[in-house]
Amino acid sequence: MNARQPPKHSLNIVDRPLSKNRSEVPTVSLSAFAYLFSEYIQYLVDRANSISELEDRLEKVGFEVGLRVLELLSYRDKVLRRKTDVLDILRFIHGPAWQYLFGKTADDLQQAANGDDEYYIRDYDLLVSRYISVPRSYEPFNPGTLAAGIMRGMLDSAGFPARVTAHFVSHKDRQRPITTFMIKLEPSVMQRQAYLEAAKKG
């Protein structure tokens, strides 16, 4: 005799299937997120000896998150087949991935004027940069380093290794600086891109 299956709503989160309805949108209380993230930043501040060490630790956490987010979204939404084009993966991060992580798409995606291997993604009001309080000596600290790590993790997992850094940039029409992410792709990525473009031309 087959054992009865427990109701879906009673399944442990580990036992629940990853597949979900598109109408099922994960929600987290903003106040809960702000509190937990602020506490985690304070935890790192207490253990870091410098801003660079603090940002390095936060970036590494983001990298691990990015690896898993890309895998999860690829499985759930079936939209991320093996990407071979740089712009395809960057548009995915700028759009669906950012929407999943922060509740909205990023505000801008541009290629640098002085290099094919450099791109910028901008967020005018990055969620992780709100509500963060650090000691005065840590004021140059950029919480967007977490998002930079997430982006690096997603790119690395998709086969586009890159260096990703977060920068505050003043904007004349905004009280708070916007966050600009600079993406510098590895030479191997650009070599593959050149090969693919040459192959398309025949």
Mind explaining what this structure looks like?
By secondary structure, this protein is an alpha+beta fold. Helix content is 45%, strand content 13%. The chain is built from five helices and four strands, in the order αααββαββα. The chain has helices at residues 30-47, 51-77, 86-102, 145-157, 187-201; strands spanning 108-111, 118-123, 162-169, 178-185. It has a four-stranded antiparallel β-sheet. A hairpin with a 6-residue loop joins strand 1 (108-111) and strand 2 (118-123). Helix 1 (30-47) packs across helix 2 and helix 2 (51-77) crosses helix 4 (145-157). The longest helix has 27 residues, at 51-77. The chain is globular, with a radius of gyration of 19 Å. The chain starts with 29 loop residues before the first helix and ends with a helix.
Task: Give the class from helix and strand content and strand pairing.
Answer: alpha+beta
How far is it from the N-terminal to the C-terminal residue, by CA? 62 Å
Compressed to H and E, one letter per element, the order equals HHHEEHEEH
Which runs of at least 5 residues are low in confidence (pLDDT < 50)?
A: 8-25
Shape: globular
Beta-strand portion reads: 5-15%
Name the average pLDDT: 84
Cα radius of gyration in angstroms:
19 Å
Largest sheet: 4 strands, antiparallel
Strand order of the largest sheet: 1-2-4-3
Give the helix level as a range of percent: 40-55%
Count of helical regions:
5
Query: How many strand segments?
Result: 4
